[in-house]
Amino acid sequence: MKRKVALFLHHPRCSIQCGNGIIEALSDEYTFKIFTKHEVEKDFFDDVDLVAFPGGEGDSESYKYLFNSNGTKIYDFLNNGGEYRDWETDRKSTRLNSSHRL
Fold first, then answer.
1. Other CB atoms within 10 A of residue 50 CB
2. Euclidean distance between CA atoms 83 and 59, whole angstroms
């Protein structure tokens, strides 16, 4: 059974192109559900194995407003053993440059 990724998108901060690269590179092993800065359902992360944030444009200070609606749910997911991945893809390929587990 494939693991499930909750993929955050908010172009250009977490770019659609990078998100598409992640999906293309990992779709053989993972299924995906997309979320944005808008509030998700209470149980959105219940069937998720990891949360992924694609690379894009911007610095860490510009991200605070993106998580006003879902920050607590993401924190709870991670606090309960969920994984976090911060991926940046090479613009010319889908090679993954970095990943982290919290």
1. 19
2. 22
The model's pTM is: 0.69
Q: Which of 10-19, 32-41, 86-95 has the lowest mean pLDDT?
A: 86-95
The set of long-range contacts for 71-80, using a CB threshold of 8 Å and a minimum separation of 24, is 73/40, 73/42, 73/44, 73/45, 74/45, 76/45, 77/45, 77/48, 77/51, 78/51, 78/102
Given CATH 3.40.50.11410, say whether it is the number of domain 3-56+70-87.
yes
**Rounded to an integer, what distance in angstroms lies between the CA atom of residue 52 and that of residue 64?**
16
Residue 53: which of 1, 2, 98, 9 has the closest Cα?
A: 9
Of the candidates 87, 62, 67, the one whose C-alpha atom is nearest the C-alpha of residue 77 is 67
**Contact assessment for residue 18 and residue 55, using Cβ atoms and an 8 Å cutoff:** yes
